[in-house]
Amino acid sequence: MALTYKSMLLNVHSKKNWLLGALLNLLVVALLGVFLRYLMVGTVAGVNYKNLLHAHSHVALLGWLYSAVTVALLLVFLPPELRGKHTYTWQFWLSQGMVLGMLLTFPVQGYAAASITFSTAHILLSYWFIYQFLKDAKAAGVAQGRHRLSFSFVKAALFFLALSSFGPWAMGPIMATGRSGSELYFNAIYFYLHFQYNGWFTFAVLGLFFWLLEHHHLLSSPTKGQTVFRLLFWACLPAFLLSVLWIKPAGWVYWLGGLAALAQVAAVVVLFLLPERKKLFQLFHPWPRLLLKLAAAALGLKALMQMATAFPYLADVAFQLRFFIIGYLHLVLIGCISFFVFAFLGQQGWLTFRGRKSRWGMGIFVLAFFTTEALLFLQGTFLWLQMGDIPEYHALLFTASIFLPLGILLFFLGQFRNKKEASF
């Protein structure tokens, strides 16, 4: 199957537009986050905080991260004649329609008929993507080519994407039987979140990471990469137990969860000791290189924090203090996953860091992220040590949060100056 030169150009520009659409979703996420934090210092009549939080989380996971990661996977693993299929165009824009539907319905009604319909439709679209992507990758012989190791991570990522959907599927029967708000209800949510960020997103970005090593012939020891894969894959399943320790289960659950967390730490150590890392950094321009290093640091902190929660006392502290949970989720989804996505897309030239708007925007975004994370963890520590609230904590958090959408807006506007320079 051959594409004409004109159709290849259209393919290039369409994928650029997809990434800009994903970035626009991130701006919406950041604006919703600011509004949520304003509700802690002020009031807005008729606004339900919990419902707005559902919209914030769904657009973050499905509008920004899912969109950006799936586009990146298409661009690096499939040849132009396959990634240019109209099937993927339909999948992308239908999924954006479902995200828009969730954005409009969750704030109004929370989990109800309309919002559940949109979120269910997105799950079905993700199944369609998994099927089509794996089918086309098989046709292209990706698993037998030089990207064999990185594609192993991607296949695992897609497996965990499908597995995570069992959580939302369980919500209907749980709520229908009157157990909304029960331990089972919350554990279904944690099941979804765990296999999203520890499974789908983590394995996808590691697949992109190892793709870079393979693509630039930097992977001198595939065995170490396979060790990282095996440790993380087999640890991911029992590591879900770390998310249910809040119900204080039997002692063996703590031990099994702790062993899984230890395996994850070991995998991260092996990853950090890869001798190719210095040569890899040389492939990145200054801003993407900084974001890559920040993502690596966040990955290390994530692994250590998960291991800490295997201890009963620290597990209780983590689940009792909401500030730690929010800070941890933002550390993973922004500090680890999003920063890597920005670094990768910048390294490939698909998002630009040229121009003052892009650099200032990303700088403001990163600084605001660090400030809000510091406030969240500091407030959690104050309460843990029974020192009370930080003076004007919510006002400080709201003020710092304003700079998150401001940074993303500047970065988004900075993309248009060099739009024609991007190449795939």
Structural notes for this entry:
- By secondary structure, the protein is mainly alpha-helical.
- It has a domain at 1-144.
- Helix content is 79%, strand content 0%.
- It contains 17 helices and no strands.
- It is globular and about 55 Å long.
- The model is unreliable at 1-10 and 418-424 (pLDDT under 50).
Please state roughly what percent of the residues sit in beta strands, choosing from under 5%, 5-15%, 15-25%, 25-35%, 35-45% or over 45%: under 5%
Report the uncertain regions. 1-10, 418-424
The H/E string reads: HHHHHHHHHHHHHHHHH
N-to-C terminal Cα separation, in Å? Answer: 19 Å
The total count of strands amounts to: 0
Percent helix among the residues? Answer: over 70%
- Describe the global form: globular
Major β-sheet annotation: none
Structural class: mainly alpha
Mean pLDDT value: 91
What is the structure about, briefly put?
This protein has about 425 residues and is mostly helical.
